[in-house]
Amino acid sequence: MSEIFWPIIDIEYVDAYPWVIVPPRSSVSAPFEEWDDMHAWCRERAEDLWADRELVPGPNGVAFVAETLARCAESLCPPESEHWLFLHLDHPLDDPLPVCAAIGPAREPREATLRALTEADDTTAVEPPVVKTFSSPHLGEGMTTFRYVTQEDSPHLAACARYAWQVEEHGADVVVWTATEDIARILSAAEDVEELARSLAVFVP
Fold this sequence. Notes:
It contains five helices and nine strands.
């Protein structure tokens, strides 16, 4: 979804507590001033994580978490990327679970588009993906899938969850996705990921 598209993802309803929210880096789609100095921004978020959880970071805690956040932002949100990145952390020292969200012009037909966006017919999955309808108060009825896939660079399976909607009012497709080989991690965060997906909306400036 690299096209410049007027509607944007609205995160107004997202409960920020379990998440570090990394905005798009594209200067066209969302010119956030925070990215003038990514490492300073990540350090601020790291300080917030320790403070919000009322934990003492120790002498190196803030710097360690800031570097972890910066590595995630640099690898998952390259320059000019237009998607949002949400990093799930129950504890500041957790390995972040990345969840991405993107928006683009609606494609037709709706059912085929949702199946494509959620990879509901992925023939490379270890077993057929679990496919369900998924309702959002802001985006309407969509689709969600969960599947396991093999990885070229790892002997471990990766667990993948995806959500997609076609928002007819705005002519927009919205997709949310996450994947990790830490299966226990994605399962333990499943409720928070679902809540995040239900919290997203579409905003037209």
